[in-house]
Design brief:
The protein contains 14 helices and 14 strands. The chain is α/β, with parallel strands linked by helices and 396 residues long. The chain folds into 3 domains: 1-108 and 295-396, Isopropylmalate Dehydrogenase; 124-148 and 192-288, Response regulator (Rossmann fold, 3-Layer(aba) Sandwich), CATH 3.40.50; 155-188, no CATH class. The strands form 3 sheets. It has a 10-stranded mixed sheet, sandwiched between helices. The two termini are 22 Å apart. The structure holds 1,4-dihydronicotinamide adenine dinucleotide and magnesium ion. The site of magnesium ion (MG) has 2 residues, from α11.
Amino acid sequence: MIKRTIVALPGDGIGTVVLEAAIRVLDAAGFEANYEFGDIGWEFWKKEGNPLPERTIKLLQQHKIGLFGAITSKPKDAAAAELAPELQGKGLVYASPIVGMRQLFDLDICIRPCKTYLGNPLNFIRRGADGNIEEPFVDVVIFRQNTECLYSGVEWTNPSDQVHEAFLTHKAFLKNFGKVPKEEISISARIFTKKYTGRILKAAFEYARNNGYKSVTVCEKPNVIRETSGMMYKMAQDMQKNEYPEIQLWNTNIDAQMMWLTKNPENYGVIVAGNMFGDIASDGFAGLIGGLGFACSANLGEEIAVFEPTHGSAPKYADYPVSIVNPIAMIASAGMMLHHIGENGIADRIEKAVAEVIAEGKVRTYDMMKMTGSPDVIKQGAASTQQMADAIIAKL
Ligand code: NAI
Ligand code: MG
């Protein structure tokens, strides 16, 4: 059998630590792969003026599968100030390499599963009608459109005359903003296209069908944002009717969804949304299942796929002599990668091992013990990143 090549992108801060832990788990589970390490992140911004060097792009184009830790981003001016002296004043502008990868490789489908691990002390609980404490079992998979919507960067402050005049042709703009001097206007455009809206909907319905979910919920706001949200919901209705009659199509507004989040999260299955509402909904649901230490994700394009925990580089924990952060979000992201490439057996074994460690409750990282992060947490009984990975490996 030819070994697979995985492009490993540690990045910055705790990204390097959690990726190392995940690769140890993959090895121990019997996943045979070569890891090509790609340069990405802050160090390369500082040294080369580019946090996503061309050689890293080539690696991903060649091998198609990336396993990514996390990077550090800083605001424009702070970033420019940290450039190497010889790169200063050249007009280099920092742009986040993860956003860059999503755009460059057209990674338009983002999948964020939020599933309860039994025994996780961070699981959401609520009081039931009889006064008893209930712990709803959440099993939600969020499909977030990853490249369009309000995050596509089509924005103006004090727009040009041409842009301003174009907006003035819109009745609602004329009525609400026609008298506002254009110097006082900022505009961010929310753009949805049929192609990418169709792709995220299709991905959501297919996933529901193949994984036994009974419903797909479009979580937007079509009653108010009629054009973009409206298009997504209408396309979902047509798709459900013509291609997925066995799956129920539900429709929630993002604001109401956030309210229902704590009321009945167990009722939802697959949720699909545009970029911004998908971002919001996925963070909301992740909070019910333990938060950043557990939230994993996949970014899928037609050719290339990148798997990553949703947390960042957590710089304050990056230089601890013994790392305290929870590697489970990264390990679960590696599990998503295995499913994507068809290694379902290995993925299931890892998933089972993680679930057993959590259920047993003997090995818990500081976040699971509800401690404030500090080097002392290890002395107080919290497991280190490595110990958590070891415990998972021992269960394989
Ligand atoms: P963050 O996710 O790095 O950390 C926020 C807090 O969450 C941490 O201080 C820690 O308390 C907790 N946390 C995060 N990961 C954890 C883990 N695995 N186990 C236990 N606790 C964990 O977000 P923050 O502090 O807003 O950003 C730090 C840097 O990361 C920034 O430069 C930001 O731009 C970048 N970032 C990068 C992302 C990426 O690479 N995809 C995503 C989010 C932020
Ligand atoms: Mg987010």
